[in-house]
Amino acid sequence: MPLRKKKDQQAKEEFDVNRNLNVCVKTGKVVIGEKAIIKHLGQETLKLIIFANNTPEDVKAHVTKFAKLNPVPVPLYKFIQSSIELGTTCGKPFMISALGVVDEGDSEILKAGPQF
C-alpha cells in the first residue's frame, strides 16, 4: 500500500505541461507563429518559446537565432507532441508549430524551463 500511495503522490506533483499551457492560453497572453514571436523578441516581452516536435528546422533555427540575440535570455522548450496536438492543447482549431508566452496568467508554464 505505501508504494501505491507514493506513486499517486508523484503523479499529483508531476508537472503537467498540457494543463498549464491550456491555462496560460486562457488566462494569460501568448503569440502564435514565427513572425509574431520574432516581433515580440525585438520588444523583449517574451518569457518562454515553445516548439512542437515537428517544427520545421528552418523556423526553429530562425527563431532560435533571434532568441540568442535578445539581451534578456528567453528559454526554449520542445513540446513532446506534434503541432496538431499543440494546437489542440491550446484550444485552437489549427496547427501551431511555435508559440511564445508573453504573460503566463494563472498557469505555472514558466516552470517548464529550457529543454533545448
Write a brief structural summary.
With 116 residues, the protein is α+β, with helices and mostly antiparallel strands. It is built from five helices and four strands.
Q: Pick out the low-confidence regions.
A: 8-13
**Order of strands side by side in the largest beta sheet?**
1-4-2-3
Gyration radius over CA: 15 Å
Overall, the morphology is globular
β-strand percent reads 5-15%
What distance lies between the first and last C-alpha atoms, to the nearest angstrom? Answer: 38 Å
Total number of distinct structural domains? 1
Give the oligomeric state: single chain
Structural class: alpha+beta
What keyword list fits this structure?
single chain, 116 residues, alpha+beta, 60s Ribosomal Protein L30, Chain: A, 4-stranded mixed β-sheet, 5 helices, 15% strand, globular
